[in-house]
Design a protein that fits this description.
Blueprint: E1 2-4, E2 33-37, H1 47-61, E3 65-71, E4 78-82, E5 85-90, E6 92-94, E7 102-104, H2 109-120, E8 124-127, H3 132-144, E9 148-151, H4 157-163, H5 170-185, E10 190-193, H6 196-204, E11 211-213, H7 228-234, E12 242-246, H8 256-266, E13 272-276, H9 282-291, E14 298-302, H10 309-314, E15 318-321, H11 330-337, E16 342-345, E17 358-361, H12 366-377, H13 380-394, H14 399-414
Parallel strand pairs: 2-3, 2-8, 3-5, 8-9, 9-10, 10-11, 12-13, 12-15, 13-14, 15-16, 16-17
Antiparallel strand pairs: 1-4, 4-5, 6-7
Helix pairs in contact: 2-3, 8-12, 11-13
C-alpha cells in the first residue's frame, strides 16, 4: 500500500505500483474513470464497506480507473493505493455513538470534492449512501455536470442501537431518516439496491424513482467448500457440530435468539455456536450464555481478516442469520457459496436466499429456530442436500455479473 500527499493524484495502478493506464486497455471504449463516494470503507467492518471495496477493486481488475473518497480511519487526510484503487481519505472525527467508526468532517467538504473531481476527472460518480460523503458527492457531481449512480445499503434499524433511540420514538425517527433519504437520492440519475425486496422497501417508504436490484455479488473462486477438519484446527475450534454466525455483534442482528436456542439444541446434539465479528453486544451475549449454562459451547473469534473468512465458513455445519434488517446479507451469500445450509429469520431480504438450502423461522420464535438447527445438525443427508442447493443458489450471485451490470450502468449514464 502506497501513501501520497493529499493534494497528489497518483497515476492509475492495478498492482499497487505507479503506472499509467495503457491505451487499448480493457476499459477503452467504456467508462474509464469512476469516483466512488462512501461514508464507510475498510478497515471499517460492515456490509457497505465490504461492498464498496469489492466493487472498487473488482472494477480495477477489469480495467477501470477507480478512485474512492471516504472518511480517514486515522483522522488525518491522506491518499493511498489499496488493491489498485486510489483511496482519498478525508479528515474525520470519532462518531460519538459508535465505538469504532469515524465520520468525515463536513466543513469545506463540498470544495474538497469539487477540487478532487477537477483533478481526477471521473466520468461517473457512484455514491454508496445518503449521509455526509454521499450527499456532498452528489452536490459536487451536479455542479460539475457529472452523472450520478447511487446505491442504498441503509435501513434505520442499523442506527437505532448506536444512536440510543428509545423504542417509542423509532417509528418517528425512521420516518425522518427516510424523508432525508428521498430528498438526497432523488438527485441521482440511477438508483440501485442489492435485492428486489430492498427496492420494494424504498417504494413503500415513498421513494418514487425507479430502483434497480443489483446483487452485491460474491467471489465464487474465494468462497467454496474446503476441508472442515483443517479449518477447525486453524481457529482452535472443538471438533463438534458447529453453528456459525459472521457479522457485527449488534442489536439488529438479534443474536441472543441463537444463544437462547442452544440449550434446546443440546438436548439432541453436542453442538457449539461460533460468533465471528465484533460489536457492542458481545459482553451481553457472553453473560447470557453463562447464565443459561452454555458458556462452554459458545465461542467468540472476534475480528477475522477478510483473507481468512473462507476458512471460517468451512469450519461450520450450518450458518445462522437471525438479523431482521438485512437488505441482502453478504455473509449469508458467502456461507452458501461455502456449501453451508442456512437458518435465517423470515424478514426483509433473507427469504430470497433461503429455499431448499435451509429453513426460515419467525423472528423471536426461539423454539422454531432451535428445531430447524437440530434437524439440520442431526441429519447428514439433509445437510448434504441443502449444501448442494446453497451452492446452486450462490452461483446466481457471481460478483462478475454484478460488476458487469455496474459497468453497463456507467456506460448508459455516459452515453
Amino acid at each position: 500500500m502506497n501513501a501520497f500527499p493529499l493534494d497528489a493524484v497518483p497515476p492509475f495502478t492495478t498492482d499497487g505500483q505507479d503506472a499509467v493506464m495503457p491505451a487499448g486497455s480493457p476499459a477503452a471504449g467504456r467508462c474509464r474513470t469512476v469516483l466512488i463516494a462512501t461514508d464507510t470503507y475498510p478497515p471499517d467492518v460492515n456490509g457497505a464497506a465490504y461492498f464498496s471495496h469489492r466493487l472498487a477493486s473488482g472494477l480495477v481488475a477489469r480495467g477501470t480507473e477507480v478512485h474512492v473518497v471516504c472518511a480517514s480511519d486515522e483522522g488525518s487526510p491522506r491518499i493511498e493505493i489499496m488493491d489498485g484503487v486510489v483511496v482519498h481519505r478525508l479528515s474525520s472525527a470519532p462518531l460519538l455513538v459508535h465505538p469504532t467508526m469515524r465520520v468525515t468532517v463536513p466543513a469545506g467538504l463540498g470544495r474538497t470534492l469539487l477540487r478532487l473531481i477537477e483533478r481526477v476527472r471521473p466520468q461517473v460518480v457512484h455514491v454508496q449512501g445518503h449521509f455526509i460523503v454521499g450527499r456532498a458527492a452528489i452536490e459536487a457531481a451536479r455542479r460539475a455536470g457529472l452523472p450520478v449512480a447511487a446505491t442504498n445499503h441503509f435501513m434505520p434499524d442499523n442506527m437505532f442501537q448506536f444512536a440510543r433511540i428509545p423504542a417509542r420514538l423509532r417509528g418517528r425517527v425512521g420516518d425522518l431518516v427516510w424523508h432525508d433519504f428521498r430528498r438526497v437520492f432523488a438527485r441521482a440519475d440511477r438508483v440501485t439496491t442489492p435485492t428486489r425486496i430492498a427496492a420494494e422497501l424504498l417504494s413503500a417508504k415513498g421513494f418514487t424513482r425507479e430502483v434497480e436490484a443489483v446483487s452485491c455479488g460474491i467471489d465464487l473462486h474465494r468462497f467454496q467448500p474446503q476441508p472442515q477438519q483443517w479449518a477447525r484446527q486453524r481457529f482452535g475450534l472443538d471438533d463438534r457440530p458447529t453453528i456459525l454466525f459472521v457479522g457485527r455483534l449488534d442489536e439488529e442482528k438479534r443474536l441472543d435468539e441463537l444463544v437462547w436456542a442452544l440449550p434446546q439444541v443440546l438436548n439432541s446434539v453436542d453442538a457449539q455456536i461460533v460468533f465471528v465479528g465484533t460489536g457492542g453486544r458481545r459482553t451481553a451475549l457472553e453473560r447470557l450464555a453463562a447464565r443459561l449454562g452454555v458458556g462452554g459451547r459458545v465461542r467468540f473469534l472476534g475480528f477475522v481478516p477478510d483473507a481468512a473468512l473462507p476458512q471460517v465458513y468451512s469450519a461450520a455445519d450450518v450458518f445462522a442469520m437471525p438479523g431482521v434488517a438485512e437488505l441482502q446479507s453478504i455473509a449469508t451469500l458467502e456461507a452458501m457459496a461455502s456449501g453451508l445450509p442456512v437458518v435465517a429469520a423470515r424478514a426483509m431480504a433473507l427469504p430470497h436466499l433461503v429455499g431448499d438450502n435451509g429453513h426460515l423461522y419467525r423472528p423471536g420464535d426461539v423454539r422454531e429456530l432451535a428445531g430447524h438447527l437440530t434437524a439440520i445438525l442431526t441429519s447428514a443427508d439433509l445437510r448434504a442436500s441443502m449444501a448442494k442447493a446453497s451452492l446452486a443458489l450462490a452461483a446466481t450471485h457471481d460478483h462478475r455479473r454484478s460488476l458487469a451490470r455496474f459497468e453497463e450502468i456507467y456506460a448508459e449514464l455516459t452515453a
